[in-house]
Write a structure and sequence with these properties.
single chain; 125 residues; 2 helices; 18% helix
């Protein structure tokens, strides 16, 4: 499910966004991918599914706040209908809006800001 919702520039997930995303998983979605806040937000495992509350910007260039120049690339690997692996790959946005995978130095603060220790979320290493 693709969800365009949330408060711009906020790392906090709105209650109604969480309720909708969880309802989508309860209704059978394997994952929810949020966008609109322009900054990455937390990732949540919920009832056998995955919620990326905000992937952040991807091709936009904004000078401020600095967090708008970061994003997450959600990579879910399936074998048929079975989910095998979930990853949140940090992305840096370069002027004039060119995304690239973040290097090791850039990745750490992006992952920390969304509450992750590693790009590989599930299964644990």
């Amino acid at each position: 499910v693709s969800l365009h919702d949330g408060a711009e520039y906020s790392r906090n997930v709105a209650r109604e966004t969480q309720e909708f995303a969880r309802a989508a998983i309860d209704a059978g979605a394997a994952a929810v991918f949020g966008h609109h806040p322009h900054v990455p937000q937390r990732v949540e495992a919920y009832a056998g599914g995955w919620i990326f509350y905000s992937l952040g910007n991807f091709v936009f260039w904004q000078n401020e706040p600095a967090a708008t120049r970061t994003a997450l690339l959600a990579r879910l690997t399936f074998s048929g209908a079975k989910l095998e692996k979930v990853e949140a790959l940090p992305v840096a946005i370069e002027s004039p809006g060119i995304p690239r995978l973040a290097n090791d130095k850039e990745s750490s603060p992006i992952l920390k800001a969304v509450g992750l220790a590693s790009p590989r979320i599930w299964p644990a290493d």
